[in-house]
C-alpha cells in the first residue's frame, strides 16, 4: 500500500505543478486545493481546510488470525483490540 500511495501522491503533485505552472508555494497550494482527480488508490479531493475527502482509508488489524477492518466504525468488520497481548501471553491459532 505504501508504494501505491506514494505513486498516487507523485501523480497528484505532477498534475498540480502543471496546473500551477510553477512550484511556488502559494500557487501550488491553490492548485492542490482546486484539484479533483482520480488516482490508482481512488479520488483526490480536499475540502476548504485541506482535509482529504476523496479516498477513505481504513485501519486493518489481525483478529483471531484474520484481517479485519477496525476503523472507521461504518466499515468495521470487527472491534479493535488494544492493548495487544504480550508475545509470551499469545496462544497459537488452531487450524479450522
Describe the structure.
With 96 residues, this protein is of the alpha+beta class. It contains two helices and four strands, in the order ααββββ. A hairpin with a 2-residue loop joins strand 3 and strand 4 (66-71). Helix 1 (2-20) crosses helix 2. The radius of gyration is 19 Å and the shape is elongated.
Concise synopsis of the structure shown:
With 96 residues, this protein is α+β, with helices and mostly antiparallel strands. Helices cover 30% and strands 18% of the residues.
Distance between the termini: 29 Å
The count of DSSP E runs of length 2 or more, i.e. the number of strands, is 4
Q: Which overall shape is indicated by the principal axes computed on the Cα atoms?
A: elongated
What is the tally of helical segments?
2
Beta-strand residue percentage: 15-25%
**Looking at the chains present, what oligomeric state does this protein adopt?**
single chain
Mean pLDDT across all residues, rounded? 88
Helix content: 25-40%
- Kindly provide the radius of gyration, computed on alpha-carbon positions and rounded to a whole number of angstroms: 19 Å
The parts where pLDDT drops under 50 for at least 5 residues are: none
N to C succession of SSEs: HHEEEE
| Biggest sheet layout | 2 strands, antiparallel
Biggest sheet: strands side by side, in what order?
1-2
Q: Helix- and strand-based class?
A: alpha+beta
Amino acid at each position: 500500500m505504501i508504494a501505491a500511495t506514494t505513486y498516487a501522491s507523485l501523480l497528484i503533485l505532477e498534475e498540480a505543478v502543471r496546473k500551477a505552472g510553477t512550484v511556488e508555494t502559494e500557487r501550488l497550494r491553490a492548485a492542490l486545493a482546486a484539484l479533483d482527480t482520480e488516482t490508482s488508490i481512488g479520488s483526490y479531493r480536499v475540502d476548504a481546510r485541506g482535509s482529504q475527502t476523496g479516498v477513505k482509508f481504513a485501519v486493518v488489524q489481525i483478529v483471531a488470525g484474520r484481517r479485519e477492518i477496525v476503523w472507521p466504525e461504518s466499515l468495521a468488520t470487527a472491534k479493535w483490540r488494544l492493548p495487544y497481548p504480550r508475545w509470551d501471553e499469545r496462544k497459537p491459532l488452531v487450524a479450522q
